[in-house]
Amino acid sequence: MTSPLRLCVRRSAASDTRGAATLVTLRLPSDVTCIEEAVELVTRHCLAGHQASKTVRFRLRVVLSEALSNAIVQGNREDRAKTVDVRAELGPEAIRVWVTDEGPGFDPSAVPEPIRPEQLAEARGRGLYLIRKLVDAVQFNEQGNSICMILRRQ
Amino acid sequence: MGFSQSKESSGVTVVQVEGQLIVGNRHELKDLVQAALDQGERRLLVDFSRTGYIDSSGLGALVSISKRIREAGGELRLAGLNDDLRSLFELTKLDTLFTITETPEQALASF
What we know:
The complex is a heterodimer. Chain A is of the alpha+beta class. Chain A has one domain (6-152): Histidine kinase-like ATPase, C-terminal domain (Heat Shock Protein 90, 2-Layer Sandwich), CATH 3.30.565.10. Chain A is built from three helices and six strands; from the N terminus they run ββααββαββ. A six-stranded antiparallel sheet of chain A has the order 1-2-3-4-6-5, with helices on one face. In chain A, strand 3 and strand 4 (94-100) form a beta hairpin. In chain A, helix 1 (35-47) runs antiparallel to helix 2 (54-75). By secondary structure, chain B is α/β, with parallel strands linked by helices. Chain B starts with a strand and ends with a helix. The mean pLDDT of chain B is 95. In chain B, helix 1 (26-38) runs parallel beside helix 2 (56-71). Chain B contains four helices and six strands, in the order E-E-H-E-E-H-E-H-E-H. Chains A and B meet through helix 2 and helix 3 of A and helix 2 and helix 3 of B.
């Protein structure tokens, strides 16, 4: 079976104060069965040429998987006509990954903490919490349909 | 990637998670556990010894099956989590919700 995923990798000149970086982009359909392959592809390219610790590798896989799942299920409501874009900027010190869906966006500050006693037995609501716990910084665009996750390599 | 199910001579149903428990296969686990409950099974062990990754949807599926098993008067044990997977349970405080043992053997002995 031919993979529907197309990964693009290119070197960019310095576009801002962060300096030159390798850019990895990937567009995937709103299909949860594509998540595993997308995570594998992006993780492999993000860590290529670097001595990544087991912890960094695990964290990157977790947060990519969670962000893609949120984008496909919550953002695009699994609408196959919509896509999710991944853009990873790979610097020497840190990896910045943007995951953007075509949904209306959401207010991340309105998501309850899943570790509250009253939330603990809920089946949903842990993805964003895990992302926040496992990366060094998280930012959203104003619309709330694009997350940027920053993970230091060490 | 998938699940295998077996029954110990002690009567405990063991579900082994092969590979991953994620958004793409979580319903399969829930259906499998529901079928076991429908057949009268009440002691279940989910063994993660061969599991590389669990995402938040997988964690949520475990919360759901835990509730179903409890409501049916049954017991659930989790075992075989590697350090990375264990850290996910600790970060989300789900280690306080489940009975988790290091090995499947310890879990079987704890019923």
